[in-house]
UniProtKB/TrEMBL annotation:
The keyword Oxidoreductase applies. This is Clavaminate synthase-like protein. One of its GO terms (molecular function) is oxidoreductase activity. Belongs to the iron/ascorbate-dependent oxidoreductase family. Residues 190-294 form the Fe2OG dioxygenase domain. Keywords: Iron, Metal-binding, Oxidoreductase. It comes from Lophiostoma macrostomum CBS 122681. Coiled coil: none annotated.
Amino acid sequence: MPSTGTGQAPPILDFSAFYSDDPIAKQKLVENVRDCCLHNGFFQITGHPVPLELQNKIMEWNKKFFDLPLEEKMKINKDTSNTWNRGYELLKSQILEEGTLPELKEGFYIGDEIPKTHPYFINKKLNSGPNMWPAPCSSLTASDVEDFKTTALEYYTKVCALAQDILKVLALTLDLEESWFDTNGFTHGAVATMRLLHYPTQPPDSPQKLTRGIGAHTDFGTITLLLQDRVAGLQVYDHATSDWLDVTPTPGAFVVNLGNLMMKWSNDRYISNLHRVINVSGQERYSIPVFYSGNPEFVVECLPGCEGAGKKYEGITVEQAVLNGYADSYGRAERWKRDAESKGKEGRVAEVVGKGVQVA
């Protein structure tokens, strides 16, 4: 494993050791993951059970979806077609980094297929409800839509299963029983959210210090598993060197990082680290993160053995922690838009104030 703490990008670990009968190889994997969690909370894994063919197929659908006409995507806009955070998200909907412009990405939210009769939907639990799928149109046949749905849900299911395996390794890194997150109920009825993402390349004349695909941020939930395409752009902040490190796309690999919930859970022993996307490649960039949150009602408190000099955080439910993150990032974008509209209107008023022209 490449040495951490020297300004090197998150290492690539062979996760197949977790499934092997070699206890030495498995222990080495645990130690390597622990080192990454202590250093910057990021690592990449190969040797996992999610087939490369399925990864490639969902990435193809990622591109096909965003190639649809805007009017087709807007029919399933997550802000107008439902209240449970499923469907299409417009470009420039979020600002995750204070002081930057709205982000150059559009998204599509997918989750477990939860019917309206399910208690999670009835009680309006975090991101819980039926998915929103595009309708057949000139660009998509009914068969295409069904293939998109089948592929997305199969991929989602397999990645969530992998997330639970990663949690078993994380338990071992913290000297807990491998099944700790299962036996304590955290993974039972867990909620996860998958986002298909598309990043247009940044315009050449865009202000470099203000324009982001995604601004510098930490993730809200427990762990994130990210599938990249072949276009770079993801950067991770390295506290040891104060540098932004490029995470080069690796075919078949998942980028894994810890979220804010895991950092609080470990009483800041482990790191939920800053990362961002800046796409200056001149190419369209696509990625697919799966944000594994956990059972929405589960109360996250200090893990056994992580108390140190004292607990730093009050207990918080998974649901409330993630909702707080949404409120911050989407609220920031809405405030920016209102301010921009207000300033634009003020400017128009100033231009016509002496001409007797009414500005609506």
